[in-house]
Predict the 3D structure of the following.
Amino acid sequence: MPIPLLAIAQALAGGATIVAHSSGGVIASSAGSYIAGTFISSAVLAQLLWSVAAIVAASLAWLAGLPALIIGGPGIFGTTIGATGATGFLMKAGIISSTPIWVPIAIALIPVMACLGLWRWWSLRKRLASLPPGTELVLSHREARFVHRLLVWMIFWRRTVECLIRHAKGLFRRVLGT
């Protein structure tokens, strides 16, 4: 069964939320009633979790060097000589003398939040894998919220990647003059 992402994306854009269905699986709900065509069974949910894992792995490979590239660092012995990224720009402009304390704290919180998400993903995947064939898993409210966040993230990430590809194509066309 395919994942009804288009129907779910439209429902979420209209203010719906993903909730646990009484017969198992999850479904989009708005104004106290279910929205037709947005049901995701336990089998499809298990496939969705593996899809999310593949997307996260590819995203992490790309994002691994992004903080260092954007934030950069001070130059030699804390001077502006050789300073890179945003830190180097702000140091050269005289706005900051060193990296503010919130930057390393924010960077340290990223792996903590990633581990929490990974633990929730792993525990839900384990529960889905232990189901006998032909049965549905009744999700808790917390698990339904987690699936809601996963779907919102997948839809947002897809739109972001499509936007980046469009801009890259336009940039290459301008550079190549075609």
About this structure: The longest strand covers residues 26-30. Residues 5-176 form one domain.
